[in-house]
From TrEMBL:
CDD domains in alphabetical order: EcCS_like
A GO MF term: citrate synthase activity
Keywords assigned by UniProt, alphabetized: Acyltransferase, Transferase, Tricarboxylic acid cycle
Family according to the record: Belongs to the citrate synthase family.
Organism: Rufibacter roseus
Known catalytic reactions: oxaloacetate + acetyl-CoA + H2O = citrate + CoA + H(+)
The name this protein goes by in its record: Citrate synthase
First and last residue of the signal peptide: none
Gene3D superfamilies: 2.20.28.60, Citrate Synthase, domain 1 (1.10.580.10), Cytochrome P450-Terp, domain 2 (1.10.230.10)
Pfam families for this protein: Citrate_synt (PF00285)
ATP-binding as UniProt keyword: no
InterPro entries associated with the record: Citrate_synth-like_lrg_a-sub, Citrate_synth-like_sm_a-sub, Citrate_synthase, Citrate_synthase_AS, Citrate_synthase_bac-typ, Citrate_synthase_sf, Citrate_synthase_typ-I
Length: 429
């Protein structure tokens, strides 16, 4: 197997090194392409372009494989906890019992946010989308912890920023929900585990404790684990790009939250439920909507279907679909939109349009059904995605900084007007 690729340009031969990953993935390192040839590559949407080498997550879209630091997602979803998976992603090891306790306790000690943050929160109208609040409040952490702006922080200082963000995002997320319903916020109860504490902050009332349901806690743990990282997706690439400019962890994650908000990305889980509810309201005719999704003249897309990388089942969707059945049964909920979702999936998986394009249910197709069953409102679904993806964003930002990667600055091919002289306004038509 050759260790380089040959490119013939204008009769001249150029060689570029081949890079092989630990899972035998191959890449052509074109770092010297422009210097040697004057050419750049062009790849809209980066469908064929690797931005970095990373040791955090491996996924094989053709085989439907997803592993965090080498551990299969199926095993982690079944046996681990979200905080343990966060430790694994950020520090590249499964923690000992002592390490996990220390990590969990450090996070618990930082769940409170500065009371002045409530003044920022109060400034948002109740109509504000929680993702907009989340991005703004995460960025505001730079105001409360200005030392986080120092790009030359020590390892210990970076670690403290990581712990603060892991701890405070769940408080900020719950508070953004309470703001949207005009309810008083709940303060964290640090005797509770991470997921129970979040549910308490979301659903407790001044007059009524939230009764922790182990079925709900287990489902939330699984969902957060399944969302924890996904290599160089849109929002993670945003976090790495912003971080490459020596922007702080908080600023980089705030940008990642905004990218995740897009309905083609993390916003899809909200769009899926809105789509299923619209189909239900329109009589529940799944076949009609399958046809709409295939019609190029119809802007309708089957939200929660298709993926840039997975050309097989998204392994997360398989686990989430099973968990949805378990949770709804355990909670005694019969949700008609789950039936519509299953009918859509069945119809799409046998329809040539979807089969030829290898369009399968992705992580967002069933997740909203579980969030709905545990009482999370639709507008909070993408916030839940952000909560889960946080350790992945942190791990990727940390890896990029430790590798001392250069500032990200893609090239372009200019297609605008060639040189022309200025025309005074009186001479313009
Ligand atoms: C996430 O990257 C990640 O890892 C993301 C993520 C993560 O964990 O971070 O996995 C999370 O973002 C999951 C994806 C959530 N988005 C949706 O569910 C929105 C609906 N899906 C699509 O819009 C689409 O499938 C994308 C955006 C996910 C992927 O788009 P691509 O890779 O750019 O593919 P494409 O748009 O070029 O589609 C290829 C073909 C096109 O048809 P043709 O031009 O070949 O005729 O498939 C069609 C598309 O029209 N198509 C769909 C479709 N998705 C693709 N047709 C109908 N319904 C759909 N959902």
């Amino acid at each position: 197997m050759s260790d380089s690729a040959e490119l013939i340009l204008e009769g001249k031969s150029y060689k570029f090194p081949i890079v092989t990953g630990t899972e035998d993935e191959k890449a052509i390192d074109i770092g010297a392409l422009r210097a040697q040839t004057g050419y750049i590559t062009l790849d809209s949407g980066y469908k064929n372009t690797g931005a970095t080498e990373s040791a955090i997550t491996f996924l094989d879209g053709e085989e439907g494989i997803l592993r965090y630091r080498g551990y299969p997602i199926e095993q982690l979803a079944e046996k681990s906890s979200f905080i343990e998976v966060a430790y694994l992603l950020i520090y590249d090891k499964l923690p000992t019992a002592k390490e996990l306790d220390e990590f969990s306790d450090r996070i618990k000690r930082h769940t409170l946010v500065n009371e002045d943050m409530r003044k920022i929160l109060d400034g948002f109208p109740y109509t504000a989308h929680p993702m907009g609040i989340l991005s703004a409040l995460v960025s505001s952490l730079t105001a409360f912890y200005p030392e986080s702006l120092n790009p030359n922080q020590s390892k210990e200082e970076v670690d403290l920023s990581i712990i603060r963000l892991m701890a405070k995002l769940s408080t900020i997320a719950a508070w953004s929900y309470k703001n949207s319903v005009g309810h008083p916020v709940n303060y964290p109860k640090n005797k509770l585990d991470y997921c129970s504490n979040f549910l308490h902050m979301m659903f407790a009332y001044p007059t009524e404790e939230y009764e922790i349901n182990p079925v709900v806690v287990d489902a939330l743990n699984k969902l957060l684990i399944l969302h924890a990282d996904h290599e160089q997706n849109c929002s993670t690439s945003t976090v790495r790009l912003v971080g490459s400019a020596n922007a702080s962890l908080y600023s980089s994650v705030s940008a990642g939250i905004s990218a995740l908000w897009g309905p083609l990305h993390g916003g899809a889980n909200q769009a899926v439920i809105e789509m299923l509810e619209a189909i239900k309201a329109d009589g529940g005719d799944s076949k009609k909507y399958i046809e709409k999704a295939k019609d190029k003249n119809d802007p309708f897309r089957l939200m929660g279907f298709g993926h840039r990388v997975y050309k097989n089942f998204d392994p997360r969707a398989t686990i989430i679909k099973k968990t949805a059945d378990e949770v709804l049964t355990a909670l005694g909920i019969n949700d008609p939109i789950l039936t519509i979702a299953k009918e859509l999936e069945e119809a799409a998986l046998t329809d040539p349009y979807f089969v030829e394009r290898k369009l399968y249910p992705n992580v967002d197709f069933y997740s909203g059904i579980i969030y709905r069953a545990i009482g999370i409102p639709t507008e909070m679904f993408t916030v839940m995605f952000a909560l889960g993806r946080l350790p992945g964003w942190i791990a990727q930002w940390k890896e990029m900084r430790e590798a001392k990667e250069p500032i990200g600055r893609p090239r372009q091919v200019y297609t605008g007007s060639t040189e022309r002289d200025y025309v005074s306004i009186s001479d313009r038509s």
